[in-house]
Amino acid sequence: MNKTNTYEQIIIEELEKYANDWNKNDTPVRTQAIIDTKGKHYQLVRLGWKTDSDYVHYCVFHFDIIDGKVWIQENRTDILIAEHLVKNGINKQDIVLGLLPPHVRKDTEYAAA
Fold first, then answer.
1. How many CA atoms lie within 13 A of 65 on its CB side?
2. Where are the alpha helices (DSSP H) in the chain?
3. Taking the CB of residue 95, how many other CB atoms lie within 10 A of it?
4. How far apart are CA 47 and CA 56, in angstroms?
5. Over the stretch 62-103, which tens digit does the pLDDT of each residue have?
6. CB–CB of 73/98 below 8 Å?
7. Which of 12, 68, 73, 77 is 20 to 30 A from 39 (CA-CA)?
8. Residue ranges of the domains in the chain?
9. Could you tell me the sign of the dihedral formed by the alpha carbons of 57, 74, 38, 35, in that order?
10. What's 109's DSSP letter?
11. Gyration radius of the chain's alpha carbons
12. Which residues have CB under 8 Å from 81's CB, separation 6+?
């Protein structure tokens, strides 16, 4: 299995784990993993009616694989998702914190781009 396929599998497993865990809660708001293996885009979204008049729909995590690197495009949690990806086998130098401005990325322990 090549690096991109390995990274894709790690991302999918991580998103599915969160979706399964969060959907065990007794809440009308559901969590869905959205997987685009052809385009190399991966998201975890929350959606549903919290109350009769409060509908939610938002992206929790968004990853892309671009040129063999995992780009973290969104993280709306306090989970250090990059660390989870490293623990599961993704090289730090293959993770780009795309949600940070480009001039700040060079100061992280991850790839600048």
1. 20
2. 3-22, 81-87, 102-105
3. 23
4. 5
5. 999 999 999 999 999 999 999 999 999 999 999 999 999 999
6. yes
7. 77
8. 3-105
9. negative
10. S
11. 15
12. 14, 61, 72, 75
The pTM (predicted TM-score) of the whole model is 0.93
Query: How far, in Å, CA of 61 to CA of 58, rounded?
Result: 9
Quickly tell me which residue has 């998201």 as its tokens: 43
Strand order in the sheet with 69-75: 30-36, 41-51, 54-66, 69-75, 95-96
CATH number of 3-105: 3.30.310.110
Separation between Cα atoms, residue 69 and residue 71, nearest integer Å: 6
Which tens digit of pLDDT belongs to each residue from 22-64? 999 888 999 999 999 999 999 999 999 999 999 999 999 999 9
Tokens of 95: 């993770």
